[in-house]
Amino acid sequence: MQIGEKTKAAKALIKSGDTKKIIVFASNARTPEIYILAANYLQTCDWHTNPNIMKYIINFYSKAKSYQHLSGFYDGCASVEIDEYRDYDKALAALKEALKYCEMSPPGPERDQRDQQLNQRLHLTEQYI
After folding, report:
1. Binning pLDDT at 50, 70 and 90, where does residue 129 land?
2. Quick one: which of 54, 61, 101, 128 has the fewest CB in 10 Å?
3. Confidence check: pLDDT of 120 > 60
4. Which residues, 6 or more positions from 70, have their beta carbon under 8 angstroms from its beta carbon?
5. Alpha-carbon distance values, 93 to 20, 32, 68, 105 (Å)
6. What is the CA radius of gyration of the chain?
7. DSSP H/E element including 105
8. Model-level pTM?
């Protein structure tokens, strides 16, 4: 199967909404683009209450070496921990992970700005605790 065909197949599976099939397909496809598509889709699922989905999101972004996406995911996790659960310790751990992966992403002005924002949120969360 050609890469373009794999991408079309992945997008069709995503439209179907069959999470299990999407995970299996992405695991077998072994291409960064499909890993990212699958992880992006999985973020629309109820990942906070299902730790397996969360593991797949992290795994797919890691396999794709998409550290900016992984950083954004951990940043989102921190926001959920604060906004919905008021768990500042978990939020702090997620922010540290977000910062770690932000620093692994390609250098540039976008990364520098994100790094600065994460450091600021990390500092404020540490002060609050």
Report:
1. confident
2. 128
3. yes
4. 58, 61, 62, 101
5. 29, 26, 17, 19
6. 16
7. none
8. 0.92
> Distance (Å, rounded) from C-alpha 104 to C-alpha 87?
26
**Is the pLDDT score of 24 beyond 60?**
yes
Residue 88 has a CB neighbour count (10 Å cut-off) of 16
19, 51 contact by CB (below 8 A) = no
Both tokens assigned to 82: 């604060």
Q: Where would I find the H helices in 1-129?
A: 3-16, 19-29, 32-43, 51-63, 67-85, 88-104, 109-128
Q: Are 96 and 78 in contact (CB under 8 A)?
A: no
Cβ 42 vs Cβ 24: under 8 Å: no
Tens of pLDDT, residue by residue over 89-118, are 999 999 999 999 999 999 999 999 999 999
The length of the chain is: 129
The model's confidence at residue 64, banded by pLDDT at 50, 70 and 90, is very high
C-alpha distances in Å from residue 76, one per residue of 1, 26, 51, 79, 125: 34, 22, 15, 5, 14
